[in-house]
Amino acid sequence: MAQLLSTAAEKLSLGADAGKVVYIDEVKGSDEAGQGTQDAPFKTAIKALDFAGESAQIQVKKDEEGYKEISASALKKAKKTLVEQQRKAKKQEEQKLKQEQEKDSSLPKAQTIKIRDAVASRGKRVKVSGWVHRLRVQGKDMMFAVLRDGSGYIQCVLTGQLCKTFDAITLTLESTITVYGVINQLPEGKTAPDGHELVVDYWTMVGKAPGGDDAFTNKISQDADPSYLLDQRHLVLRGETASAVMKARSQVIKAFRAHFEHKGYTEVTPPCMVQTQVEGGSTLFAFDYYGQQAYLTQSSQLYLETCLPALGDVFCLAESYRAEKSHTRRHLSEYTHLEAELAFITFDDLLQGLEDLICDTLDRVLADEPTRQLIEQLNPGFQRPQRPFMRMTYADAITYLKENEIKKEDGTYYQFGEDIPEAPERVMTDKIGKPIFLTRFPAEIKAFYMQKCSDDRRVTESVDVLMPGVGEIVGGSMRMDNMEELIEAYKNAGIDSAPYYWYTEQRKYGTTPHGGFGLGVERFLAWLLNRYTVRECSLYPRFTGRCTP
Ligand code: 4AD
């Protein structure tokens, strides 16, 4: 601003652009977006003078009457105001410079840190940059600003002259600033993040956020409509809860990877653009691929299976896509899918591997103190589930529903062979109150590739992991390893086997018993972090009708 005004002052005194006609419209003009033309007029005479200099010929429009030359008194007033503004800005700039010079010469050089390093940097002069997360002004001589840099929060205290500059007086939430000073532990009885505060000796504004109607607090309020909040997701993410979920998500993903790394699995990155289905044609997103029909992948499972002979046990962490019409709180159109595939295993090995994955991941995230704190913040009192997890067959679940009077909408009981939808599954899981491995689903209600049980050909070696509060978070199974049986299964499912030649040939060139699973990362997080919906666990959730921002 000072730079702009001093340029204006030069123009005033030198009379640059003498005689230039500049248009202002006091109603519809804009000092920010205008250009001083009839089509894009400025709003104020001050801006016109600033733009074109003292001798500008200013044409004013106040109403529908059209442009008229500015009155002498209005011109005089505008010139006076501009000079005054310029004087103030210059003074401020000088004051800033003076402060900077004083500090630079008398204080030790500040070490640039991230807020996460604040505890270790106590007592030293530091430089921290971040966003103003909270702001409290106490009288004329004291301001408390909680700064956020994504790595943590720190309370900064500004006193005396530091609170009296134009930038200090007009400081707003979400503005970016850089502060210099020393971090001191707080005395007993005072509270702030990490029990300390940064006593600021110098600070600068990096980018001022708007105040007034456009202020951050006016854009986001907790009780706003969820759809509006999703439109404002880029701002909502800055909040303490949303950012905590995203941080925990990052740590959970790291722990999943560490688990598989520890067990010697190889991570692969299968394609997202495919020409085969895995979990039924009704949830495929189709698109035109150079004139051919292609889909966004529903699951990388088939590709993982093909990796077994080359790489041994494999896993991937990739986006899967489901064109589900369901509006439930656990469905997304795009979700992060953790999938693994294991060779030469039994169904029991598969279940054991799944239990290990869940428990070891929890052990890893809880062993990291900052992550444990995030989980405690979001889901106070969270307890690791006890091993071994409960195992229940689908047939027993049908009996359980009957015995517990959990019925269909029409008042009848679920029968063997029927799909157990989300609502009754949730009631049962919440009633049992702990993780359940639900196994041996009937072949007709599961995907074409599932291995049938040798002791009962009606059911499959399949498992869904159900968690209280969410329901199904994992789907897995042993895979058909006999080629003829698989070709029959394609037929039964009405699938043309030709595009699946690469999958089928797994059974031709060295078949093996094998199995795997897919875990919905957002569903796992919704359970661990006690979120009402998986939408909260996705950075920018996509679901029916929403593909923005
Ligand atoms: O049970 P699903 O459909 O199984 C498969 O895709 C297998 N091919 C995976 C495999 O064996 N490699 O999906 C697996 C998991 C579900 O348990 C659920 O957690 C998640 O993926 N999931 C979804 N999450 C959010 N929104 C959706 N629409 C989801 N559909 C499935």
Task: Name the features.
single chain, so0334 like fold, OB fold (Dihydrolipoamide Acetyltransferase, E2P), BirA Bifunctional Protein, domain 2, 8-stranded mixed sheet, 5-stranded mixed beta barrel, 16 helices, 24% strand, binds 4-amino-1,4-dioxobutan-2-aminium adenosine-5'-monophosphate
CATH overall fold name of the largest domain: BirA Bifunctional Protein, domain 2
Taking the sheet with the most strands, its summary is: 8 strands, mixed
| Helix count, DSSP H or I runs of 4 or more residues | 16
Radius of gyration: 32 Å
> How many strands appear in the DSSP assignment?
22
Number of domains: 3
Q: Can you tell me the overall shape? A: elongated
Structural class by SSE content: alpha+beta
Q: Roughly what is the average pLDDT, rounded to an integer?
A: 93
Cα separation of the termini? 33 Å
Low-confidence segments = 1-17
Going by CATH, the homologous superfamily of the largest domain would be Bira Bifunctional Protein, Domain 2
Q: Strand-residue fraction?
A: 15-25%
CATH arch. level architecture of the largest domain: 2-Layer Sandwich
**Strand line-up of the largest beta sheet:** 10-14-15-22-21-20-17-16
GO biological process, one term: asparaginyl-tRNA aminoacylation
Family: Belongs to the class-II aminoacyl-tRNA synthetase family.
Protein name: Asparagine--tRNA ligase, cytoplasmic
GO cellular component, one term: cytoplasm
